[in-house]
Amino acid sequence: MGRCRGARGAVSPLMVAVLGVVALAALGLGRLGTAAIAAERAQSVADVTALAAAMDGPGAGRAVARANGAAVVGHAAEAGTTVVTVERAGARASAAAQLRWGP
């Protein structure tokens, strides 16, 4: 009366399936995290590049972007506002800087 002989070992395939789903979920979350980090780093580089370009011109902006592992893919200056777009590690980001002096 104690054991069911036909159900022996049925837990193993179920555990393999559950572990496979968990592994795929962890992989997906890891990739999302990596993409988010790349986007944040690109945004940081865009911010500092825009400031450098606003202060010292487009050449300075390109030099700052290059020093941070990025490339300037867009630059515009109009009415005292500098807008740059950079690409770093496959992520693009844009930032604007406007220099104002005084209160």
Give a verbal description of the structure:
By secondary structure, the chain is α+β, with helices and mostly antiparallel strands. It has one domain (about 10-100). The chain is built from 2 helices and 3 strands; from the N terminus they run H-H-E-E-E. It has helices spanning about 10-55, 60-65, and strands spanning about 70-80, 80-90, 90-100. Strands 1-2-3 form a 3-stranded antiparallel sheet, with helices on one face. Strand 2 and strand 3 (about 90-100) form a beta hairpin. The longest helix is centred in the N-terminal third of the chain and has 46 residues, at about 10-55. It is rod-shaped.
Helicity range: 40-55%
Number of strands: 3
Order of helices and strands: HHEEE
pLDDT < 50 stretches: none
Number of domains as seen in the coordinates: 1
Strand content: 15-25%
Major sheet characteristics:
3 strands, antiparallel
Which structural class should the secondary elements be placed in? alpha+beta
What is the straight-line distance between the termini?
A: 89 Å
How many whole angstroms does the radius of gyration measure? 26 Å
Average pLDDT across residues? 89
What general form does the structure show? rod-shaped
The strand order across the widest sheet is 1-2-3
Q: How many helices does DSSP assign? A: 2
